[in-house]
Amino acid sequence: MPKMQIACPRCRQPILAEVRQVFDLAQDPRAKELLLSGAVNIAQCPHCGFQGPLATPLVYHDPDKELLLVYVPQELGMNRDQQEKVIGPLLNQIINHLPPEKRKAYLLQPQTMLTYERLIERILEADGITKEMLQAQEQRLRLIQRLMSAAADARAEIIRQEDALIDENFFAMLAQLLELHLAQGDRLGAQQLLEVQKAVLEHATYGQQLRREEQEVKAALESLQNLGSNATLDQLVDLVVQAPNDTRLQALVRLARPAINYEFFAKVSERIEKAQGDEKERLSRLRERLLELTQEIDKEVQARLQAVRDLLEQVLAAENLEQAVIEVLPAVDDLFLTVVEQELQAARQKGDLQRSARLNQVLDILQKVAAPPPQVALLEALVNTPDLQQRQQLLERNAQLVDQNLAETLARLVAEYQQRGEVPQAFKNHLSTVHQEVVRFLASKKG
Ligand SMILES: [Zn+2]
């Protein structure tokens, strides 16, 4: 970014600052994120110490959403002519960058945003995020902060008063904040957030519902596990028709969906025919509900599959494959890998060499980035090597990886496993031996 001379927003003395005036997604896909993050156009004044946003005219362009926005801060006191002189070249820069066939009518009518707030709102609106949604998010954030600082016995009452704000979004925000605090190593904050989470699960209506659901899923899973691997279809039908509530029923259908097939429904129908009165009625309603649930689940699976396929095609079409794969990493799961394998097979069968090569590249990149860091790999190898001499060789071969950090990680593992009753004593002893060996090796390396 070029440095420009501007007047300090506080003391008005001239200062140098990095100023960005064009946010064009056609030229820079990260421009939107950058603008929304508030991390650009910050002034730092060496004269008065001011640090904060600086006022600059700017232009925002999103070609996919046909959005062309202009913002000139009112505090700059520019008249119409002056504004046009500044904005004109910025708009030209955007239009000149577009190939002629993409120069559409919306480019002739840039929308003027009167405040910076409005500019941000307009960008978010185009993503389907309304002002009301943003306000609700702000309220949720404030509520979390209030709960964090509140005394433990005051939390229940606050939660009861703010019950309406505590929903799916609230829990998502809580999880995000927790991740953030952990990543920053803020243990106290993370601890407070965990306490808040515990309190809302206990006292909020939505939290109670979540806990009930969790319990029902757990109960459903246990009942299926109890059937064992030799379970008959009749046993599964028993379990499903005896489900004590709809939440349990949903959990059972989700977990056992592949077994809820034509044969399963035939058995339910048989039972309906044999049943009498109220029970007959109840079973008929149950069959209806089962049909509904299985269709719902199948639709969800289809939609997820389609989304994964679309994502994969996007990746395959990218110019820089490696970068594209890394960008979608958060979305890579078992389903994604399954789809890649399926597409690879299909491409091979069709003899589409280009496509299969590219799909193979995707798998290679994924494997490369998924490989554990060398130190973690060494740790695993050490723990999995029973022979003392071989462990010594491993340490010597990887001497450059053996450092204080490795020793500390092992010490933490030892401490963690000591507390776990289900771990055999022999393994705990083994871990502790490996730890001592690493410490000794480290000492000899230094000495
Ligand atoms: Zn200043």
Strand order of the largest sheet: 3-6-7-8
- Share of helix, binned: 55-70%
Secondary structure tally: strands: 8
N-to-C SSE string, H for helix and E for strand: EEEHEEEEHEHHHHHHHHHHHHHHHHH
- Structural Rg: 30 Å
Please, could you describe this protein's structure?
By secondary structure, the protein is α/β, with parallel strands linked by helices. The protein has 5 domains: about 5-125, no CATH class; about 130-205; about 215-285, no CATH class; about 320-370, no CATH class; about 375-445, no CATH class. It is built from 19 helices and 8 strands. It has helices at about 30-35, 80-95, 115-125, 130-150, 150-160, 170-185, 185-205, 205-225, 235-240, 245-255, 260-275, 275-315, 320-330, 335-350, 355-370, 375-385, 390-395, 405-420, 425-445; strands at about 5, 15-20, 20-25, 40-45, 50-55, 60, 65-70, 110-115. Strands 3-6-7-8 form a 4-stranded mixed β-sheet, with helices on both faces. It has a two-stranded antiparallel ribbon with strand order 1-2. A hairpin with a 6-residue loop joins strand 4 and strand 5 (about 50-55). The longest helix is centred in the middle third of the chain and has 41 residues, at about 275-315. It is extended, with a radius of gyration of 30 Å. The structure holds zinc ion.
